[in-house]
């Protein structure tokens, strides 16, 4: 191979790598990956949850598909999307970790979104098993019901955060509640924790969420 041909081939190789980077270079596309890390979704469901119109959501999903990050299946007239593999979820999680470690804007943006108390009252997942085994805690999943059905921590109760105020009586009164949602940057568990505290309930938030739980290859139940 000549030097010119070698340089051309190398350029094409790195452009192929760059395709993945370009697909990740949009906040809404990252949000769609975050949602798909919870389980398969239709275009309509993704658009609704991400606050996008259908055309824009479809365009973002096509970009992710062309980069090989998501896959599809057809069910009649509906198109269902899923992550192309667990390595895509791992890439997304690693991107967030690197950004949090090296980009100064992440911390204030996280505090503004999750609340200044985001680091308080959190429980590492390593400590969860002992509490549950001893009967000292109940695990509460506050994600939407379809995400719970797609996969949840074994034994977790499902009460979507928007229903929690009306269903708080379903939780044992004398047991600490461990709340979790999609991942480390999911606001649902923070909102649930504030509500539980306001109602005088003992509660903590699982430091991680379903994304990190799956990546740690811990047991997952599906409804």
Automatic annotation (TrEMBL):
Q: Which residues form a coiled coil?
A: none
Q: Which CDD domains match?
A: HTH_ARSR, RHOD
List GO molecular-function terms, semicolon-separated. Answer: DNA binding; DNA-binding transcription factor activity; thiosulfate-cyanide sulfurtransferase activity
Entry-linked Gene3D superfamilies: Rhodanese-like domain (3.40.250.10), Winged helix-like DNA-binding domain superfamily/Winged helix DNA-binding domain (1.10.10.10)
Keywords in alphabetical order, please: DNA-binding, Transcription, Transcription regulation
Superkingdom of the source species: Bacteria
Domain Rhodanese spans what residues? 133-222
What the entry lists under SMART domains is as follows:
HTH_ARSR (SM00418), RHOD (SM00450)
Q: Which InterPro entries does the entry link to?
A: ArsR-like_HTH, HTH_ArsR_DNA-bd_dom, Metal_resp_trans_reg, Rhodanese-like_dom, Rhodanese-like_dom_sf, Thiosulphate_STrfase_CS, WH-like_DNA-bd_sf, WH_DNA-bd_sf
HTH arsR-type domain segment(s): 9-103
UniProt name for this protein: ArsR family transcriptional regulator
Upper classification of the source organism reads:
Bacteria, Bacillati, Actinomycetota, Actinomycetes, Kitasatosporales
